[in-house]
Known about the structure:
This protein is α+β, with helices and mostly antiparallel strands. The chain contains 13 helices and 39 strands.
Amino acid sequence: MHFGLRRKRIAYITFSVFLILILAFPPISSFPFTSKAHNPEGENTPHAGLTEFAPPIIHNRHRMDKDADGIQDSLETLISQQVTNRSAVLPVVVTLQHPVSDQDLDWFKMLGGYVTHVYKYVTYGFAGVIPAANIPEFVALEKGKLSVVEHDAPIQYHLDVGVPIIRARPTVWDTLGYTGSSNHSIAIVDTGIDDSHPDLGPFEDLNFSSKIVGWYDATSDSSTTPEDYGEHGSHVAGIAAGTGAANLLQGSDRIETTFTYVLPPDPPGPSVYGYVDYIDVENSGVIDLNCSWGGTNNVLMVLSSPTGEVERRTGTSQPLTISYNTTGTANPTGRYEIFVGNIAGPSGTPFSCLETYPYQGQNDGHNLFTGVAPDSKLVGVKVFDNTGSGTASLIIAGMDWIIENRIEYHIVAASMSVGLVNGATYTTLDEKADTMVANGIITVVSAGNDYPEFTIGSPGTAAYVLTVAATNDLDGIASYSSNGDTAKNEYGLIKPDVAAPGGTFDPQFGNKILSVDSNEVDAGHTSYVDQQLNDYQQMAGTSMSTPHVSGLAALIAQALGEWNWTQEEALKVKMLIGMTAFETQSGESSNEPPLNRGSKDSKEGYGRVSADAAIEATSMTHTIGELGNATFGPNPTDKKVWARQVSLMAKNEYRFNLSVPFGADYDLYLYNGTSDNYGQPIIVEKSVNASTGTDETILFTPMESDLYYIVVKWVGGNGSFNLQSTGRLLRDVAITSVEPSTNETYASWPVNISVAVRNNGGATETFNVTAYYNASTLGTQTITNLTPDGTMNMTFSWNTTNVAPCFNYTIIAEASEVPSETDIINNNFTDGYVEVKMLADINGDGIVDIHDFTVGGKAYGSVEGDPRYDPQTDLTRDGYIDIRDMMIIGRNYGKTC
């Protein structure tokens, strides 16, 4: 007998016209229900005065409505399929350009519609059910007010390693001192949260002494207290903010984890279909497996070491057990595989396998499976009912509730492992996600698990959200992690934004992510009662990478201090996370990102997040002149990024020099203090030599005083670097223009030379300005206390009485050097020439003759302002050309140069 492996599919919540369950739960549907949490009398909340809501982001045109008739194109297809069935109804979501009015609802009801949700904050609109044939008539009534009507699609589901990898544990917790604020919460939009698990409970509404401070059940279950019959939400919540209270292991001991699923169909022939799980045995000792199931199936259980099968059991009697001592074997430690298969019996039978095995704690004083932000609070937003059913309208209802209650429940971040099936893009869903960010909620969305078949879909394509890809234990991009497509983003943005640990299904690259297993059920949405209380289980997917980043977002929000629920704050957190990510340069199968040296790509975004560097950038400064240093290394838990704030003054030249150790490749970046419009970091300067052991240097002069970020990133190798910085005040005075009052004159006539001066440097300056004609000095003037960016105009009077006529003279102005001046080239300015002529040589040909009389004659009798008036003929300079001017020509007649 041999057995084939049917691996657990990836955990990733997704919705669309047809949404699929990555965790392989059955198809679902639901009847929506809304509820609102209360604020107990006398309960004080911070920022009580902040009642403003950012208006919903709603566009007039959508890609999903290409003919711009107000009806989603795919919904039009569904309507056309129902033309012969006048009683057929369709669930829809209506998006309006204005707040919902009674008239809007009355029109919908008049046409046979039934309203299930009204949205006020995440969008203007409502959800409901309406006869398919009446949808065009409703659209006609709403003409001019409607954005789009779309199909309300049914939805289905699409730490001890992960937290140290991103260096939240123990660096951020212990060294930097951030574990999440007890006055901030993370909203988990998912299957719910199990408040009975020690890592996640207890719950008390608006009691910030409890772990779960808020709860909203958007489904028809109408639960008033937290619950999770899907297991997924509790797993996500544990990664983001679990306390790890159920396992206190520090040193060498044994731990318990649970492997649950449902048995696949009994295959024909000798094959056995089943599922695999991997456990990491970190010390030699006994592995105990205890498997039970909810039926009469004949079950196969196999334990394999890294080099092959070591034990197998079959049977119909429960429990099925294996006990194997690794001590003295060829593989006393390593990754062991557990297989559970169905030899005979019905498919869909739930099973639960308790895995007890030797393990090694972190010995850092923290609980073994502590989440990223363990002191942050949780708010459960349940959008799937207890059978796993849900609709897109419920997701929107959850988002709407979060915006409405964000201040009351102190929600600074939302973790949303959701996405449209097959990478579909709905601009309406992107708008709703962006509206959450506009209301100051750091919205973190999973990229999806569809590589290579499909690219990232909505809401991961939303502009303002943080879209997260998944990495394995070796910092490579996981084989399933969806890539982005810029054509699917209305702004042409690259997605994902960053990557984080999501686990892998390939044992050569690591394992899945261990986190909380709900105490409600085993095998998710089944009737199979939980077999082991307060346990943990493994899942993998971008659903798991997402809460790593939402937890990190909560840590940064704590480091930033007071939170005012603005888009600027939310985008700043996104910027800090993206800015301090590093490029992985590796991936499973063909899902390998390129090395972009600071740029973004469609596989990993800016790269794998570095919690320690993100907090450094948020809370630590680099002072010009001090020495910065750190040690980087290639191992997943080694430090990879060093970041600091740095204040730079205008008109100063700064030099940053990074000393790179032999054989290593580190890059140096200077980032702007603010992001672009979408929260993406802006590189001001970078030094990214590709050769190893080569130092990196940045030279930068800011035009304005501002905050910047200096960041060092690992590319390859290992060792300590030194970062030295220097700054010097730029001192630079410049002549910006020289303008003579005329370009031709007679000897003895005065000429005014206008000179414009500017202080381009950062110090107040006193200096001399000298004007010249050829090599002769016209004069020198002193400028006193010219401030930075200050300008001054001065005039030099040139007496040409003793200047030899019949020559062109070059006019020059020169500013004297100021101490330590950085640019002396602009201290000189030359403005052409001035022609000095003999008196009465009107035409400038070098002789006073009849031609000059002719020119004078033509102007004779004219006055200044007259079109015939010629200043070169007005030899007496009295503004009138008369006989006296002609006499001067006569007296000089015949003179030559």
